[in-house]
Backbone:
């Protein structure tokens, strides 16, 4: 008998301790991020309500169908749909990055831009000279390609002008 009493006392203490630790955790979460904590609580309540409604109707339909006579099924379906919408909206809120996460991402992006800009400053003189030579060579190569394209267009336009002139002369002679 004493063992049974000790068992029930330890069981009650474990349950109370678990509930208290859950409440303390929930309060701490609410202090840190109230919107996320509220969303999490709403999502849990809506999920349990939806599942509870479905299980209740299934069990009643199976065991006591007389209780479901005259039940408005649209209200039942509407309650489940509303609970589903609440679950989806709260999940959307939970998936969004927090302001601190957005700030950290913005800071990280700015930091990477800054390191890219200053990485050129960290080059040695020889590396900087080599980089400038490569850039100058690339510029000259592109300049030569552009000049070649311009020359090709000039040749084509001259050839076309000569063809038009010869066509006009042949039209003039006729």
Residues:
């Amino acid at each position: 008998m004493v063992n049974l009493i000790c068992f029930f006392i330890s069981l009650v203490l474990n349950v109370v301790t678990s509930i208290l630790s859950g409440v303390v955790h929930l309060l701490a979460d609410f202090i840190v991020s109230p919107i996320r904590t509220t969303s999490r609580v709403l999502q849990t309540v809506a999920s349990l309500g939806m599942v509870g409604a479905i299980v209740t109707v299934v069990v009643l339909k199976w065991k006591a169908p007389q209780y479901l006579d005259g039940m408005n099924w649209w209200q039942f379906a509407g309650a489940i749909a509303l609970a589903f919408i609440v679950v989806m909206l709260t999940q959307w809120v939970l998936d969004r990055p927090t302001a601190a996460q957005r700030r950290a991402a913005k800071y990280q992006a700015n930091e990477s831009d800054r390191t890219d800009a200053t990485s050129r400053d960290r080059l040695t003189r020889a590396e900087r000279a080599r980089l400038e030579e490569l850039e100058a060579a690339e510029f000259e190569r592109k300049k030569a390609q552009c000049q070649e394209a311009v020359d090709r267009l000039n040749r084509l336009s001259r050839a076309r002008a000569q063809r038009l002139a010869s066509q006009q002369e042949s039209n003039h002679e006729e």
